[in-house]
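Blackboard transcription, Thursday session:
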Amino acid sequence: MAQHPADLMESINKPRITRKTKTEKTAWIVLAVVAVLIVHTLISNPNFEWATVGRYFFGFPVLKGLLLTIILTIVSMALGTLIGLVLAVLKIMNITPITILVDLYLTFFRGTPILVQLIFWFNIAALFPDLFLGIPFTDIGWGINVNAIMTPLVAAVIGLSLNEGAYTAENIRGGFLSVGKGQLEAADSLGFSEWTKITRIIIPQSLPTIIPATGNRLIGMFKETTLVSVLGVADLLQSVQLIYSRNYETIPLLIVACLWYLIITLALSYPQKKIEDRYSKHKNSGGKVTATTEGVKLG
Amino acid sequence: MISDTAVESDTAVETQRGLVEIYSTTKSFHGNTVLKDVSVCVKPGSVTALIGPSGSGKSTLLRCINGLEPIDSGVLKVNGEHVGVVERSDGFYSLNRKKRALQRVSVGLVFQHFNLFDNFTALENVAIAPMQVLKRSKSEAYETARSYLDRVGMLERADHYPSQLSGGQQQRVAIARCLAMKPDVLLFDEPTSALDPELVGEVLDVIRKVSASGKTMVLSTHEIGFARQIADQVVFLDEGRVCEAGPVEQVLDNPREARTQKFLERVFG
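(Written on the board underneath:)
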């Protein structure tokens, strides 16, 4: 360090102190008061019945419901993502009648409430009592009694997947549109087929946009599955409802459900945050794809 | 009769390989005419430089030759074949995607902004089109890709992603990517305009080397000095029209048109 007069040296070496603003100080006080109030009511209000919460938290019906909720989330998400990918690819092919069909699908599934859709699928047998898959105008084929196969669980998976597919399609299409025009022109000028262009350039390059958004949809889907309880599917919510309808311990059992939903959501949020950080970092450094496509190799 | 024409067109293609013919071609975007009655002929194995102010239609002309943009009227042929269309008695019908893609293989385009595929390394960028489009085996495509990277002096950076390369290096890889497809015609769309001044030289050196190999080339550029060195023919475009065209000495040294003179004065300032 350069040499300066002694009194100046003293000033130069003084630390920088950040002062809290008045607003921030006040906000801390408000936070402390709120925290005290919450803790106080959690402890002093006997209606929470923490002992009952503890008793049911690891209860067999609750864990079984939780497992079903998780399975339902994974299956619906997987099918929904597949449907969404197919719809998005169909839409970017830019063939008008196909686009119209895809748009009809998107409009119906995004324009009606998911709860109504679930009830609708459960009652689909009233519209199509017998489904016959086969060659038209011949007897060759396979008949299905819709009433028999449309169990609450089947209706739940169909309803959630088809609905998820519509939202994922828009999400994936957004990712496709984020791919630079120059990349597509380069592919065209080299004589790539549409299929090569989509699978080698568009999909790999849109993953940084699609993956974080899909993670968010997964967390959303986990909570959305509670809707299937109206069909009588024994998911986590339905399981606790069955218990409290018998013993009237409504609040403690709803708390059990809430705690489980919260635990899983938080558990999913951590990797989600990591994924978002990773993809946004590479996007900002200009090398958005170097890390994201490590697994996408030629050949 | 059908086989007769097939044989005839086969021999025609052989003698016309690398020939680019443009007659009275017009192109407009949303009512804005970008090319007006443009006629240019590029002989096989020759180098044509397109010069002219920004917005004069140089890029559009190159994109039309590559078939990225369909023309509105006129005749545009590469290798003696209409680009993107087939002629019938009642008019031109556009080719299907597959045939258009096939035609583009014979015309390589080097972009101003390189447009290397971000998700592939330099080597993969050069190898992917021969593999996917020409259906070469992976080992063959990679071997060829290495030799082309070597030719543009980029073999050492074969495993780098475009984001890890300088603009000049990216453009050299982009040239290798085009060469790997063995096109009959190579187009350059202002290949050095997006580069920092100190990187222009390395790209021009590579283009000079390619031009010496006898490939048909059409190049739009603001580097008049470079055009003078490598071009056989110079075409001066202004507001979408061919204002002046001819041998280098004529257009650059003794321009007849007042607008060409003015443009050259401004460039050499």
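Lecturer's comment: Chain A is about 70% helix and 5% strand.
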